[in-house]
Amino acid sequence: MTCFTLARGPRGPHVPRRLSRFAPRRACVLWLGLFAWACAPPPPGRNLILISVDTLRADRLGCYGYERPTSPTIDRLAREGTLFSDASAPSPWTLPSHASMFTGLYPRRNGVTGTRFTMPKDVATLAELLSKYGYATGGVVTNSLLTTNGLDRGFDFHEEVDKGGPHPSATSVRGIEWLQGRDRKRPFFLLLHYIDPHADYGTLEDVREQFVEPYDGPLRGKSEELYAFVEGRLKLDEADGRHLSNLYDGAIRQLDGELEEILTYLEGEGLLEDTLLVLTSDHGEEFLDHGGVLHGLTHFDEVARVPFILRGPGIEAGRRIETPVSLVDLVPTCLGELGFPIPKNLDGLNLRPLLRGTGELPRRRIYFEADLDGSLAGSMIKGKDRAVRDGRFKLHFNERTDEVRLYDLKNDPGETRDVSAEHPGLAQELLEDLRAFLAAGRDVPARTLTEDDLARLRELGYAGEER
Ligand SMILES: [Zn+2]
């Protein structure tokens, strides 16, 4: 069981050890003073903005080496901040990945491995922690999975807005409105979630013209086309894959313009100086890289690698860090940068030594798990894929078929050649370690999904036909 005790913040009151030596009246005055201090909002401090772009694979951004101009604003963030070039999502789909992003725990340890599981009360979210430290907390999201299962806990304001497509989503507009109306005496935490690059891949015409090459095939970038392929009812050739990929690139460029709106506002208000800004994603997307499309089923790097960029006070500009990190590191790193204590027993690490260049992280392994609800996802489920990363090696393990594959990411970044026969000892050790990790989860009672839940999930593509 994971338990969190909220330690006092860095500005917390220091109660005298031996209060009895004070005269009663002085003690009373002191207590009243402390009471008033405790009730008063903390002085404005460092703010936090977490930008989560749904379905954004790292290698489609200029700052991660992409040659197309998809991301001028994100590239600016990278120039002004520090970029982790090897950051992984612990799960290839929205709900568990965000649950880890918000808690510093792998899905198996915070309990949110699927839509039937709500985060237990004893697991603290980043918003809950910052709210208890006196922060104003706002969340603007575009995916209903972020409004359920406990992921909206700790927010004073939490709203699901128009997800856009083909027009830009309403996230930036609503986020700016919240910033304008916030309590300015308190520091703030704002979550901005954008779903623009998620299928359907839709953009306005001017962006489409910039990124989409001539194509005379049947695909329009609609989710149902992609499900039809996954279920074997539609074949895709190379030109189809390239077309989908081009549509996706356009969606990233459009999204980047929405981020520019937020940055322009923050800059105009003078907020960039006092704000830690974090940009990441919950997972990437497949474009036939390993024969598949969409996301949710595998842990190949086109799905696992996500952008992870920090900009703000004390964060060095233009720095790139190559050490492998995971989204479970986000909570301890943000708390560390804001000056708050980090809860014990988190799976993630505070990345401050890397950010400050003062040291390396302790050696560790990074885990990946895909647990789409089998009966819901129906024929979309091919197997329960898991993975563990140890430095340059990643071991994939399918829990249904027992298939094991080991890839050397340094010599084979495309994960094309299984080297488990060349490294049998390492493969065995990683497999045993992964099995132990999988066995150490916690039991969370499954809830029954309502018709509303099912309708929302079908809309997102997470609920296929039951078979
Ligand atoms: Zn997602």
Bound molecules: zinc ion
CATH topology group of the largest domain: Alkaline Phosphatase, subunit A
Class computed from helices, strands and strand pairing = alpha/beta
What spatial order of strands do you see in the largest sheet?
A: 5-4-6-1-7-11-2-12
The residue-averaged pLDDT reads: 87
Distance between the termini: 35 Å
Please describe what this structure looks like.
The structure is a single chain. The chain has helices at 24-39, 72-80, 94-103, 107-110, 126-132, 171-181, 205-211, 223-230, 238-268, 301-304, 330-338, 352-356, 374-377, 424-439, 451-460, and strands at residues 47-53, 82-84, 87-88, 136-141, 157-160, 188-194, 275-280, 286-287, 293-294, 305-306, 308-311, 319-321, 325-326, 366-369, 385-390, 393-398, 404-408. 47% of the residues are buried. 32% of the residues lie in helices and 15% in strands. A hairpin with a 5-residue loop joins strand 16 and strand 17. The chain has an eight-stranded mixed sheet, sandwiched between helices. It has a four-stranded antiparallel sheet with strand order 14-15-16-17, covered by helices on one side. Strands 10-3-13 form a three-stranded mixed sheet. With 467 residues, the protein is an alpha/beta fold. The protein binds zinc ion. Zinc ion binds at residues 54-55, 93-94, 282-283.
Sequence-ordered SSE layout with sheet pairings:
Elements: H1 24-39, E1 47-53, H2 72-80, E2 82-84, E3 87-88, H3 94-103, H4 107-110, H5 126-132, E4 136-141, E5 157-160, H6 171-181, E6 188-194, H7 205-211, H8 223-230, H9 238-268, E7 275-280, E8 286-287, E9 293-294, H10 301-304, E10 305-306, E11 308-311, E12 319-321, E13 325-326, H11 330-338, H12 352-356, E14 366-369, H13 374-377, E15 385-390, E16 393-398, E17 404-408, H14 424-439, H15 451-460
Helix pairs in contact: 6-9, 7-9
The structure holds zinc ion (ZN).
